[in-house]
Amino acid sequence: MGVSDLEIGMSYDRRRWRSQLNQLLQQQQQQNGKHVVVEVDMQSSSSEQHTTELVGIIKSIDPTPPPPPMVLMDLRLHRATIEGNQRKFIDTLVTVSTEKGLPVTSILDQLTPLGNTFLHLATDFGHFDLVAHLAFSFPHLLNTTNGRGDTPFILAARSPQSLSNFITHIHEFTPYFVDMFKITNNDGNTALHQALITNHNADILDLLLQLLRGDKEVPFCYANQQGKTPLYIAIETGQITIVTKMLRLLPENPDEIKIAGKSPIDAAIKAMNTDMLVMVCEKIPSLIHTRVAEDGGTPLHCAASVGYYKGVEFFLNRFSEFILEHDNNGLLPIHIASQKGYVKIVKKILDEYPDSRELLTAKRENILHIASKFGKIGVVEYILKTPYFGVLINQKDNNGNTPLHLATMNWFPKIVSCLTWESSVELNIVNDDGMTALDIVEEFGGISPSFRKRLTWIALKAAGGKPSRAPNKLNNMDSILIQNDGAQSRVDYKDRVNTLLLVSTLVATVTFAAGFTMPGGYNNTLSDPFLGQATMLNKRAFQTFVICDAIAMYSAVIVAVTLIWAQLGDVHLVFSSISLAMPLLGVSLLAMSTAFLAGVWLVITKLGWLSHLILIIGIVFLSILLALYIPLIVPTTSKNYVIRYISYYFFFQLMLIASGSNAADDEEVEDGAA
């Protein structure tokens, strides 16, 4: 059906609608004892004339003010509206009006609990013939808002198909569309905002711009609660065709229109769309020097913060002065890139402007300070590998903190480890509070330090870090308890001791029982001189089983006895007991696992594939157990590089992966940064 056919059909339907409506209004006139001409000229095709006549009719019948807006909708009319049958709606409207003695306008002003009118409901359920007739006869409903502040137009804009049908069926009201565009809901969105947010196709959006009839305010001057104008959203959603057409609406001098809300340039940067960025900068050059509302940064700050490499290139080439401009936090663009961990952007800025390495924040922090503070290992490694940046390594900020101090304060163990492996890093340099990095760990580690804090302490101790304040300061993380011999501390360590004691007791019980249930059983032949001996005594796997079982059992017993001493309550004795018990318990678990493997393998050797599978599984898991056990006996504090490598690769790196600290260095930025 073409547009002309649609108009003819709608015209016929509206004449029939108006005839039915006139009959209803005449009945109300006769009941009220008023003599008013209510006939409507059926030949007139002007919607404006229809509206004027209808307003006169309504005023003559019901001159009193309408009732309060929150009158709940009649359920029968509610159902008729949802069904969308026009004839049923008119019949129900007549019935309700007759039964309740209410004028039509009062009934049509009724609302659902959410504040929706009949026009909202018809729009929401897609009954657009009913929408057209309601809008035609009662145009004030077009601008009525519901509880969310949505007009029927905004409601239709939430769905591509609904919006297309809505516009098609009320195209006769085109003169009123501009005013309808300027109504905002509770979120500050106009229908154009909503259509762009819903990401309609370009044809519908183009039609909306045509309905604006060249209005220059709606796309640029109406910002929602988030500070986004329709132009901003169009850029953000990548609607380059719509953006182009919106920009054509601007006058020759764009400064005549004040762009509201957030800068469209920021939208182009965050969308990482170079074409739109160039287009907006060329069309509205005054926005280039507009600061970001959130932090007062330049567009170069914004590009660096989102990792938009091409955007950084664009601004470096055209607006190099941005390099030296601070935001509200005292940060320069290179500091923002360092804070976010964008190594490629940091390299680009330093390649273009090598002196940027000397640029400092308002707190006199260099790029290595920032990367260490926010846990960005990639930037730290890049700086440490480049000899040109050696001057940054031990530089102090306003508080006398070096990058090592800041990484320690924010508990980034991998950053700390990376810095300590650099020979030019001064491990024992003090800040303005007279504290080394190790002092910071031991001062602020807490009574029960987290695993990340322990890893940070190990990294410093392994590199040979020293405290500047000895006797009253701590010489290891566990000795915090010595200085704070509180009830809670004793409870914490008592729980640790009890847990280890339970494990060691279980191991001793299991291995003791295994010693009397040998694989293969015993020799029961009475005439055999080896009566009662194990039948597989000469098998190497059996001998391995017995040796490992014995080691496991005795180690577990020693651990249990050692931990019994720890129950005496002396703090120093607790630490000594745990220090001895932990390695022995590791030996016990390793020996017990080996005994299990040897015993199982011994009794299934005749089935080749199964014995080989069990052997492989056992070797893999024993290797993992060994990797976890070795760090318990390898010294963590040594200046010997061989020992440090062993400590690093067997303990530190493994524990970082196991605890998720590798990811934490990059992810826990906001919570970790001081």
Structural notes for this entry:
By secondary structure, the protein is an all-alpha fold. The chain has helices at residues 3-31, 47-61, 75-83, 86-100, 104-108, 118-124, 128-137, 152-156, 160-169, 174-181, 191-197, 202-211, 218-221, 230-236, 240-248, 264-270, 274-283, 299-306, 309-318, 333-340, 343-352, 367-373, 377-385, 403-409, 413-420, 437-444, 451-462, 480-483, 487-514, 540-566, 571-603, 608-629, 641-659, 661-667. It has 34 helices and no strands. Helix 16 (264-270) packs antiparallel against helix 17, helix 23 (377-385) packs parallel to helix 25 (413-420) and helix 24 (403-409) runs antiparallel to helix 25 (413-420). The longest helix has 33 residues, at 571-603. The protein is extended and about 120 Å long. Mean pLDDT is 79; it is low at 1-12, 33-64, 470-489 and 661-674.
Provide key terms for this protein.
mainly alpha; 34 helices; disordered N terminus; 674 residues
What radius of gyration results from the CA coordinates? 40 Å
Tell me the overall shape: extended
- The strand count comes to 0
Q: Estimate percent helicity.
A: 55-70%
Distance between the termini: 67 Å
Largest sheet: none
Strand content: under 5%
Mean pLDDT: 79
* SS-derived structural category: mainly alpha
Annotation field: number of helices: 34
Give unreliable regions as ranges.
1-12, 33-64, 470-489, 661-674
